[in-house]
Amino acid sequence: MDERAALGVLSERLSAAGDDCAVVDGQVLTTDMLHETTDFPEGTTRYTAGWRAVGASLSDVAAMGAEATAAVAVYSAPTFDETDLLAFVDGARDVCSAVGAEYVGGDLDDHAEFTTATTALGRTDDPVRRSGASPGEAVCVTGTLGRSGAALELFEGGETERANELFRFEPRVRAGTGLAPHATAMMDSSDGLARSVHQLCAASDCGAAIESPLPIDDAVDAVASDERERRELGTFFGEDFELVCTVPEADLPAARAAVSCPLTRIGTTTADGVTLDGEPLPDRGYSH
Fold this sequence. Notes:
Layout: H1 3-11, E1 22-24, E2 27-35, H2 36-39, H3 46-63, E3 67-77, H4 82-98, E4 102-110, E5 115-123, E6 138-142, H5 147-156, H6 160-167, H7 173-179, E7 185-188, H8 193-204, E8 207-210, H9 218-223, H10 227-236, E9 243-247, H11 252-257, E10 263-270, E11 274-276, E12 279-280
Parallel strand pairs: 3-4, 8-11
Antiparallel strand pairs: 1-2, 2-5, 3-5, 6-9, 6-10, 7-9, 8-10, 11-12
């Protein structure tokens, strides 16, 4: 079975599962695992790997509208190279610093390929879950879409410096806390915009009518050969770690004022179905 099927099996045993983080006594907790062959293309620096791996977990904290407090990571590789190890830790520390959290250590282990597992903690008294949306609300997304897809194209083309820059995203922790008083539902876009909208709608028992133009990153335009590839990278590729949220119409101006990054309205929640420009939007995105 694939990752989604496995999650479906586990949800039958773990009633509290289903959001980006677990919530325990005012704290949020999340964990992620990334592998060299599936998550770090050739040319990814260890600094970028540390930043991106820890950033992925911090993005989950952001999706709950929580303040990020701390993160740890497991670093596993066939051998321990001092330069690589220190670069990874520097990346992990710097991404934590960027969102006001602290990198506090982790574990080391031998493994056949470079692998890292990360855990992040946050704090909130009122977490934003995926399940609070209702018909008639604005569907919004922070930032731009397709950065990671564009980076993959650049890695494959040997433009590793620019690709590493695109891979080092800033987790939307500050945006998440700013949106928390206004958003009825929220999650991050790690699985891609299309799948994230489907997941949020399923959790909230509603639908969504998404409309073009979507906020596609300029980097996508630089690598996409045509409109089909542009749509693929921006809508389905995933791993961008932006926030997808729903906001009541009356709260939309205040929500935009509460964040320093762009907050683009991309549609409206409906009673059922998920569409893009009136056509069914496939439930497709990033998966392991």
